[in-house]
Fold these 3 entries.
Entry 1:
Amino acid sequence: MNKPIAVALLSGGLDSVLAIRLILDQGILVTGVNFSGGYLPVQHEGKDPAERAADQLGIPLVRLPIGQEFVEFVKAPRYGRGRNMNPCIDCHILMVKQAWEYGTKHKARFIITGEVLGQRPMSQNKQSLMLVAKRSGTEGSLLRPLSAKLLEPTVPEKTGLVNRKRLLDIRGRSRKRQIELARKYNVTEFAEPAGGCLLTDAGFARRIKEAFEHNESSVEMVELLRFGRHFRLPSGGKVIVGRNKTENLELQNRAPPGSILIDGTHLPGPVALLIPGRKRDRVMAARLCGRYSDRRNEPEVKLKISDIGKFQTRPSEIEVKPANPDESISLVIS
């Protein structure tokens, strides 16, 4: 007889790991779903928390993208924001909805999250938990194993697919019981709380708000906010200057059509992007790139410059005076 299947949101945090563990213990197969891109942090080396957690749990992990639909409700959330630009309720509704759509296509009987009643005042009170289930289309199918005994029974509990007696009644912000469970299950791979969404970070929140004010709201532009130093030119154009080798590579790989790529790595120095690639902005963009090179104090530096488009052009050279500190500070997006 085939085992029943569930799908679970797996951030890699302790709560999501324990929620899955409780369901695995009941002989149910679980597939983890994790979202990537958009305003989520970039993992440059090694496995990220969700991958490590999935390995430890012995379950498959599926990646779904943060798409344009997510960006639109960051601009205008229906259910409000947290302290910064984080529309937690709207976001959770869409994540649950999309994970459940994936699950139903793959014969999942229900969906799991690691939410704990009362852990977060805005998004994990009883009213918000009910709202997420209703608006995501998962009423009766959305199971929160860590707080299930404090909530209305779901369909898998009512039908006996899941034994409700083996679920928990955790409430509030204390993590004492979760830590005890982690020891019991020998769970060692999990991410620290509140580190998975850049919208909760004040600096990133200022960047995305400023980008929206300049109509930069595509997924591609939002993803670029995660890299480099950002400057706004008087014309309205944006310059992004890499801070290290990894960011330089990201900017090269993510340069959108119509932008200008300025390469100062031979100085040595950074890579910079000018978006859009207006001719009148190229000198200032190159000066900002030179400002963060090792030759920032020289009278002039030569930089390579390339148009990014349908047909790549060979780099040309531009010779400029590096921007001084006051100029760069006046243009920086805080």
Entry 2:
Amino acid sequence: MPEIKNYAAQPHILVVDDDKRICELVSRYLTAQDFVVVQAHDAARARVMLEHFEFDALVVDVMMPGETGLDFTGFVRENTDIPVLLLTALGESDDKIVGLESGADDYLTKPFEPRELVLRLEAILRRTRKAQHGEERLQIGNKIFDMQASTLEEGGDVQSLSAVEAKLLQVLAQHDGAPVSRAALAQKAEIEAAERSIDVHITRLRKKIGEDPKAPRHLQTVRGKGYLLRAVPVS
């Protein structure tokens, strides 16, 4: 008898790319690797998909007509904590930094090997699962970091964190106020990116925590050693 797949248990991925050929190739390969894939050929259609379906991750092309992949990623990050992997034909490091600043969790430069796409998606999904299975709550300044929900809360206002941001805070919290190097953060948070990318994520976290980037009190830089987090458990 043919194997009956449990589609509900498989990762659901939304692929957003105006190049229908690339979209189809990516979708076909991911489907063969046991992902459930839905396609959207522009950001407008992707927004409709997000309203009607739940996804574990998004694969988004940067250079799309109309609303770009960067703009769409910004919209996603403002409204959800769904991980975003950007596809870009731009190889310059500054362009990749812009992608991370828009809220993306990772990026992949075209042309790419399909297997690398799968590995990066799997790494993103692992980070997401780990972030969701935490149980602690930490006080960071005026905000409460909920590891299980991957959120920051202050006075009833809840702000979502990306899987990368939540994992970085968890790694820093595990070191009890001791500095953690950029290389160690990248390794322990499973971020497949240059160390400069860590700085981008830290800058985003500082803004969400509500700190002055020029004089951070809770997420500090220790010259020559990395970053440290000052936080206390919430009983």
Entry 3:
Amino acid sequence: MSRTQETIEWYLNLVKETIDNLDRTEIEKAISAYMEVYNHEGTIYIFGNGGSAASATHACGDFLKGASFGLEKRFRVMSLVDNLPALMAIANDVSYDDIFIEQLKNFIKPGDLVIGISGSGNSNNVVKAMQYAKDMGVKTISFCGYKGGKISQIGDVVIHSKALDMEVAEDIHMMVFNVIKKEVMRQLHGENPSMGDVYDNRVN
């Protein structure tokens, strides 16, 4: 086996092992939290740094369109990483550690859901925002990796990728967001959440 093949096998096996170690009960709790905020017409706020920021935007888009399409009542979801002028102003004038908490101060209310994503679980800006939401009595979900970090002690629900690897954490987190979306779509749209016919008939 070549060194390249060894890397491929090592990484894929690590992902498989991490999936096997995922707490399914916590995923069920996350699905319930999504349905609860939907039923009460609350708003979901999602945020993270780097790859986790990309996951936040991806997960937000999936619920603004995918899970909401065709519904009269739709999901209210906001990614706090997407307003670049606001992020830069807060980072420059206050602190990078405050880029998420300062936005939450403008928006969150009882019945909302706050989701923080941090591979290490210790990103200061995610920790501060999660703790603020907790103090305000708003339900929180922590997506973390490695040993869980500080946000694993804050979240009402904890999605923990236990591999000591950042890329695996990012993979697992996005996979769980997709699982949540699939089950939410099943509950709201019926037994065929894949929209296969739509995608099969696309021109591009």
